[in-house]
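TASK: fixed-backbone design
INPUT:
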């Protein structure tokens, strides 16, 4: 018998012995520790009802911001035509900015003691932004959709900011005004200038005289 054939093959019992405490505990389930919509209040010197109102408002804003964020990626991928390159880049820049807002808004819901909405199905049920088609659309239609979505967001963010101030929730007001509103307003400017119908090469009022 060769040396190779005499090699000892350990049994499964031998392999597992001595590693019990290092084994991952898989397939664990339990009841959730906090129901959606309930507040687990933190010591931040704010009334529980104020926290609940702000968390509720911010979750609506979160669902709409996640939807706008994803619409930017859709348009980043699906844009076409002579402005493909600058719009491809612009849409992705705005996608990144909206992603940062998503995280800031979601984390504020948590620190208010609420539960931030997270999964796509819950976002789809909650958002007020109309669902775009799966197919590709022309650039002016893409930009119109984005502008309309921004306006939904801006309108609700301003109402929520005032409501937060009335309740004494200055942190939520600051997030809404300094980050959400100002970022969305700036993005609207960058988008809207793309659908101003100006001539590309020859000034409009010089066309007839130049031809003559
Ligand atoms: Fe990309």
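OUTPUT:
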């Amino acid at each position: 018998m060769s040396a190779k054939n005499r090699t000892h093959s350990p049994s499964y019992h031998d392999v597992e012995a001595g590693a019990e405490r290092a084994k991952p505990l898989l397939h664990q389930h339990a009841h959730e520790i906090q129901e959606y919509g309930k507040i687990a209040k933190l010591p931040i010197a704010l009334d529980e009802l104020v926290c609940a109102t702000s968390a509720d408002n911010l979750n609506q804003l979160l669902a709409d911001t996640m939807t706008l964020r994803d619409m930017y990626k859709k348009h980043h991928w699906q844009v076409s035509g002579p402005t493909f390159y600058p719009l491809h880049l612009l849409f992705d820049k705005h996608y990144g900015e909206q992603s940062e807002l998503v995280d800031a808004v979601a984390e504020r819901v948590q620190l208010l003691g609420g539960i931030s909405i997270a999964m796509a199905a819950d976002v789809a049920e909650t958002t007020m932004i109309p669902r775009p088609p799966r197919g590709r659309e022309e650039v002016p239609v893409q930009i119109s959709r984005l502008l309309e979505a921004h306006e939904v967001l801006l309108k609700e963010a301003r109402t929520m900011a005032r409501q937060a101030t009335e309740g004494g929730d200055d942190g939520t007001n600051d997030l809404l005004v300094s980050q959400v509103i100002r970022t969305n307003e700036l993005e609207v400017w960058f988008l809207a200038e793309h659908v101003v119908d100006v001539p590309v090469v020859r000034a409009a009022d010089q066309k007839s005289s130049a031809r003559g």
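COMMENT: The pocket of fe (ii) ion is lined by residues 76, 92 (CB under 6 Å).
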